[in-house]
Specification:
CATH superfamily of the largest domain: VirB8 protein
CATH topology of the largest domain: Nuclear Transport Factor 2, Chain: A
Protein name: Conjugative transposon protein TraK
Keywords: Membrane, Transmembrane, Transmembrane helix
Transmembrane segments: 20-38
CATH architecture of the largest domain: Roll
Strand order of the largest sheet: 3-4-5-6
Largest sheet: 4 strands, antiparallel
Strand content: 25-35%
CATH class of the largest domain: Alpha Beta
Structural class: alpha+beta
Number of strands: 6
Organism: Dyadobacter psychrotolerans
Number of helices: 5
Distance between the termini: 121 Å
Length: 205
C-alpha cells in the first residue's frame, strides 16, 4: 500500500513538472509570437507602394528628423522661386506671391508690401519684364532650432533690350508648423531678409 502511494506521489510530481514545463513553453511561445507579430506590423507600416505609369514602386517612411536638411532646402528653394519668378502678368504675379507667403511669416509680407508700394510690380508689367531665379546653394544649419538658412541664387532679368544677371543672397530661420496643401514641408520662414542683391553682368539683346 505504501509503495502504491509512493508511486502515485512520484507520478503526480512528474505530471506537475511536465505541466509546468509545457505551460512555460506555451507562455514563451506566445511572447515570441507577439514580439514577431509586432516587428512584422511595424516593418509593413514602414512601406508605401506607389502606382506610377502602371508600375508599382516601393517607398519607405522615415522620421522627420532624418529629412530636415532635404525638406528645408526644398522649402527655401520653393519660397524663393515663387517670390522672385515674375512675368508681366498681374494675375500670375499675385498667384505666385500668395503661394510664397504661405511659406513665410510677416517678414516676407513686409518685403512684398515695400516692393508693391515702390511700384516694382507695376514696372514689371508695364515694361514687359520677365524675371527668373536659380539657386546656387542653400545652407541649412539643422544643429539648432529654429533652423538657420542662407540662400545663394542668381536672378535673370529679361528686358526688351538687355538681360541682366543679378546675385541674390538672403537669410532667415525655419520653424516647424503643420503640413498642409499650401505648405507640404511643414516649415515657416521667419526673420527673412536680403543680404545682397546686385548686378553681376549685363548682356545686350
Amino acid at each position: 500500500m505504501f509503495k502504491i502511494a509512493k508511486n502515485i506521489d512520484t507520478a503526480f510530481r512528474q505530471i506537475r513538472s511536465f505541466s509546468l514545463v509545457v505551460s512555460l513553453g506555451c507562455i514563451a511561445l506566445c511572447c515570441f509570437t507577439f514580439y514577431r507579430s509586432a516587428v512584422m506590423v511595424e516593418h509593413a507600416q514602414s512601406r508605401v507602394y506607389i502606382l506610377e505609369s502602371g508600375k508599382i514602386l516601393e517607398a519607405f517612411s522615415s522620421q522627420r528628423k532624418d529629412n530636415v536638411p532635404v525638406e528645408a532646402r526644398d522649402h527655401v528653394s520653393s519660397f524663393h522661386w515663387y517670390f522672385f519668378s515674375l512675368e508681366p502678368d498681374d494675375k500670375l504675379i499675385q498667384s505666385y506671391v500668395v503661394k510664397a507667403l504661405y511659406l513665410a511669416d510677416g517678414s516676407a509680407k513686409k518685403q512684398y508690401d515695400n516692393l508693391r508700394e515702390a511700384g516694382f510690380y507695376n514696372s514689371i508689367i508695364s515694361s514687359n519684364i520677365s524675371q527668373s531665379i536659380n539657386p546656387d546653394s542653400i545652407q541649412i544649419d539643422a544643429r539648432a532650432y529654429p533652423y538657420y538658412f542662407k540662400y545663394y541664387g542668381v536672378q535673370t532679368i529679361t528686358r526688351a533690350t538687355s538681360v541682366v544677371s543679378r546675385s541674390l543672397i538672403t537669410e532667415g530661420y525655419l520653424r516647424n508648423t503643420l503640413r498642409s496643401d499650401n505648405n507640404p514641408h511643414g516649415f515657416l520662414i521667419e526673420q527673412w531678409r536680403t543680404l545682397e542683391n546686385k548686378d553681376i553682368s549685363v548682356r545686350n539683346r
